[in-house]
Design brief:
Structural class: mainly alpha
Mean pLDDT: 95
Distance between the termini: 89 Å
Shape: elongated
């Protein structure tokens, strides 16, 4: 039952009072101030107020159309309302919503124009969005320094994701390294990332944990606290944290825990693996390969997850799969040297030096493949020139004896000396 003031507001709205309609519509939409939430009924009042020039209602009704909340979804009509509030009434929130909708429709240049307008009018989420577009050259000319400046404004205004991103810019990680004119600071990075983590942002929880684990950039090293943040990030669904937490629990190293917990490790590594994390697939497969008193062996999972990661081109899994197939490993991994050769070649053709050497030796000896001395020499020389000691020895011996390739004792001596100097 509405109180007398709200009953009067409803009556006034029905009599054509725009402000009353805006008040009733908004409170029906949100279920506030004694009104029972009713989006469909709210939309009628909000539209009336919007069409009567009530600025906030124009933006709200656009949002309802945009999301299909109380009215049938109609993004084009939503854009019309947003644009009226943005252009005619200079409403920063409408500018931001207009830009978001245009970006969702892949109209990135138009989105950037209105993100900038909203940002320059003080809309903090627009500062974050526009900063990211500048940082990545997303539909506009890349300007990393300006992007960082907009993200700082958003971060300083309390936007959690901007805090986390700006913190990583200050760290200089990945794509954020080498921004001309930008002043990097690990100490400042720690402050921003800590603020974002305190707001529960999963990636920032992970980043804070990693900084604490290593004492990165002079921040306080605290491995015991680090593992708490990394686990929180994993439990909030941040996939790299699942892998990292699994590794820590598996090895029991880095001062984060007092002893390994393989069951916990397997649980989190499998979580990461099942969400597509390639390193987690590989780690989980290796962890369950042998089993322990605490963790049962699961060769079926070893096969499954190594093949999953290998099929996506993950080199460590390709190598691990090839090694197991080369020698065989129980019923789950019967020896199959032809298939092993196929995987070694995949890794070799991606310049993995160990695989280059092994595949060259297989070609030389006809293991899993037809003997091909010329190709063997090609791969062995390549590995040797990349510094692989056994390959230096193998290629040097082929040159010395003229094993399928032209004999060259002088060149052979040079490779054999390099191999000997390397301890082979």
């Amino acid at each position: 039952m509405l109180n007398q003031n709200n009953q009067n507001a409803v009556q006034s709205a029905f009599q054509g009072n725009v402000n009353a309609a805006a008040y009733v519509g908004f409170n029906l939409w949100k279920g506030l101030d004694g009104f029972q939430k009713d989006s469909q009924e709210a939309a009628k009042f909000v539209k009336f107020a919007a069409d009567g020039g009530h600025v906030n209602s124009i933006n709200v009704y656009g949002f309802m159309l945009d999301k299909g909340d109380g009215v049938p979804q109609n993004k084009q009509e939503a854009l019309n309302y947003y644009k009226i509030a943005a252009d005619q009434y200079s409403d920063p929130n409408a500018m931001f919503n207009y830009a978001l909708t245009q970006k969702s429709l892949n109209n990135r240049q138009e989105a950037a124009v209105y993100f900038k307008k909203a940002a320059d009018a003080g809309q903090l989420h627009a500062c974050s969005s526009y900063g990211l577009m500048l940082l990545n050259g997303d539909g506009i000319q890349m300007d990393k320094l300006q992007g960082a400046n907009y993200l700082k404004r958003a971060a300083d205004g309390g936007v959690a994701n901007a805090m986390g991103i700006y913190g990583n810019i200050l760290r200089g990680v990945g794509q954020y390294s080498n921004i001309n004119g930008f002043t990097y600071s690990k100490t400042e990075a720690f402050k921003y990332i800590q603020q974002a983590a305190n707001k529960g942002l999963p990636q920032s929880l992970y980043d804070l944990g990693m900084m604490l684990k290593d004492g990165e950039g002079g921040c306080p090293k605290n491995p015991k606290e680090a593992i708490v943040y990394i686990k929180q990030a994993a439990d909030k669904g941040f996939i790299p944290a699942m892998n990292q937490y699994g590794i820590i629990m598996w090895t029991g190293k880095q001062g984060c825990v007092d002893y390994p917990n393989l069951v916990e490790a397997a649980t989190y590594l499998q979580m990461g693996a099942d969400r597509g994390h390639l390193e987690a697939m590989n780690n989980y497969a290796i962890l369950v390969k042998d089993g322990t008193n605490d963790l049962p062996q699961n060769l079926e999972h070893t096969v499954k997850y190594l093949r999953m990661a290998a099929s996506k081109g993950y080199i460590p899994s390709i190598i691990n799969l090839a090694n197991l197939l080369y020698s065989g490993y129980g019923e789950a991994f019967p020896q199959n040297q032809a298939e092993a050769a196929m995987y070694y070649k995949q890794a070799a053709d991606k310049n993995q030096v160990y695989a280059i050497q092994v595949y060259g030796a297989m070609l030389r000896d006809g293991i899993g493949v037809q003997v091909d001395k010329n190709q063997a020499a090609f791969y062995l020389k390549k590995a040797a020139d990349m510094g692989h000691g056994y390959a230096m020895l193998d290629y040097g011996l082929m040159l010395k004896t003229g094993d399928g390739i032209p004999q060259d004792k002088k060149e052979a001596a040079a490779y054999l000396k390099k191999s000997a100097d390397a301890g082979y």
